[in-house]
């Protein structure tokens, strides 16, 4: 089985199932266990992506630095609800460093930033959602499609909608009555103002940050020969 298939199974099957089982069967106090589960499994494809060698310390450091920048970005805009550079920074990491690095940066950023903003049973959902957005960005980054402003516009809109819709799954489950498509639909409608804000902030920060940060990541890849197999 190829590493790419393993990554897809972990990110789109194992982790979602683990989160849903934890959210529906375990008590709220177990969310730390679920977060650890997500973190461990999100690391596996990242390390597998380096084939026969172990990741260089500089490669791990780049992920840590991008996660720290993402957390700082969330803190800097904490006074504006839903207007954050987190998704954009995670996406840029995925664009330049690959899908696995994008997912890991998203998951780490979510759980780390919640140390400041509050951990809870919603944390694993945030880890998965930001991780998936980073993973998709990594897949898109393998093409030349993400080089234009128009493509960044579409990704910003798409990621804002996807973040809202995935987090609304948690909103429905948190009500304690199981999952209902009717309730889910009503939550999506209620969340429209926040979804629009997500989309606007994603587009703005992608336009502002993709080139300066992306160019620096490219230089690091060339200078140190890191992330060449992602």
Automatic annotation (TrEMBL):
Pfam family, one: ECF-ribofla_trS
Transmembrane parts of this sequence: 5-25, 31-48, 60-80, 122-140, 152-176, 188-209
Keyword line: Membrane, Transmembrane, Transmembrane helix
Name of the protein in its database record: ECF transporter S component
Provenance organism: Kurthia gibsonii
């Amino acid at each position: 089985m190829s590493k790419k298939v393993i990554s897809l199974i972990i990110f789109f099957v194992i982790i979602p199932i683990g989160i849903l089982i934890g959210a529906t069967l375990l008590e709220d106090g177990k969310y730390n266990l679920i977060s650890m589960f997500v973190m461990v499994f999100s690391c596996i494809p990242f390390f597998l992506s380096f084939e026969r060698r172990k990741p260089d310390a500089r490669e791990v450091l780049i992920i840590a630095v991008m996660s720290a920048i993402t957390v700082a970005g969330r803190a800097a805009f904490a006074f504006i609800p839903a207007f954050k550079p987190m998704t954009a920074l995670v996406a840029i990491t995925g664009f330049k460093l690959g899908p696995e690095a994008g997912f890991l940066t998203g998951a780490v950023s979510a759980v780390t930033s919640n140390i400041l903003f509050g951990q809870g049973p919603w944390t694993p959902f945030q880890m998965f959602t930001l991780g998936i957005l980073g993973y998709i960005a990594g897949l898109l980054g393998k093409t030349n499609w993400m080089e234009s402003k128009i493509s960044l516009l579409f990704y910003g809109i798409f990621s804002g909608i996807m973040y809202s819709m995935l987090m609304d799954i948690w909103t429905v489950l948190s009500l304690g009555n199981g999952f209902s498509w009717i309730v889910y639909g009503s939550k999506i409608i209620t969340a429209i103002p926040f979804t629009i804000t997500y989309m606007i902030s994603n587009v703005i920060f992608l336009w502002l940050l993709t080139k300066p940060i992306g160019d620096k990541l490219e230089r690091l890849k060339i200078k140190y020969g890191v992330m060449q197999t992602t």
